[in-house]
Amino acid sequence: MTLRMKLLVVPCAALSFAGGVALATSPVTKPAPPVSEPLPKHVVPASKDGNLVLGLCDGETSLEVEGVKEGQKLTREQALRASSKLMADWRQKNPDALWDEVPGPALAQATPPNAKKSPAPAPQPNPGAKPASSDVRQGGVGAESGAKAVPQQQKAHLQTGHTYGAYSERDEQIWADSTQAFVKEGHRVFHDAEAVGGTVGVSCDMCHPDGANTHPETYPKYQVQLGRVALLRDMINWCIENPARGKPLADGDPRMRAMEAYIYAQRKGTKLEYGKH
Question: What is the pTM assigned to this prediction?
């Protein structure tokens, strides 16, 4: 009886030991975080005279600027002339390419059509009333919010947890003004070679006046220059790194976010059609 018990115990011990070895030799490792691949570079031909050579964002078209040496920065007038020549060369090589012309008045400089003329006056404080929160983001809107009382239907939305159930005309005006200011900042960066971080005097608007032919509504889509599917911000960085000769912007950079807002604003009302070329 004793011998039989030992025979039963030994296999169990062996299994336990084998399992211990397996755990010791196969530690659990966490997967490495994804690493974003750097964007490819636009290699422009070298000038035999050491002149500055600019490249277009197609990754192929280039132009040597006579009288300006590599490392020097163009004036805005010089950069505009060079960019216009680059674009003319590209359009000559691609006569059948679809190109959306410059849109109408820049949205960034115009008042939104649905904006109110002026914000309503803030309610006068009532010493005997309980303080009411007006922070819509936390859902804590009181009986009075901004310019007018919250309707009963909107109050019901608040009671059911609807974050945006109650807001006033004043709230809408604040949101519209904030959005418009954000778009205007994008307009400024888009038109300023220094602000975008360029080193040769080229700004985004020189090839894309008022955001023309950026087609934000078609992203994400495969971009030949990048060799992969790209977002709008990937193409913005491609242009910053190559035609503008600057450093790429981080996703959270205020300049990147503002430029994206400006470019999308310029195509307001256009149907979304991701993947379209």
Answer: 0.60
Q: Mention every residue, 6+ apart, whose C-beta is less than 8 A from residue 239.
A: 57, 204, 207
- In which residue are the tokens 């400089």 written? 109
Task: Give the separation between CA 35 and CA 233, rounded to whole angstroms.
Answer: 17
The enclosing H or E element of 229 equals strand 228-230
Reading the block at residue 34, the tokens are 């994804």
What number is the average pLDDT over the span 189-200?
96
Q: For residue 136, what are the CA distances in angstroms to 10, 123, 142, 143?
A: 68, 17, 10, 12
Contact 204, 196 (CB under 8 A): yes
**For 70-104, what is each residue's pLDDT tens digit?**
989 999 999 999 998 988 898 888 887 767 766 65
Domains and CATH numbers, the chain: 51-111+176-266 (1.10.760.10)
Q: Which residues, 6 or more positions from 234, have their beta carbon under 8 angstroms from its beta carbon?
A: 39, 223, 226
Tokens of 109: 């400089």
Both structure tokens of 90: 């590209």
Contacts of residue 59, defined as CB under 8 A and 6 or more positions apart, other chains included, come to 40, 42, 224, 225, 242
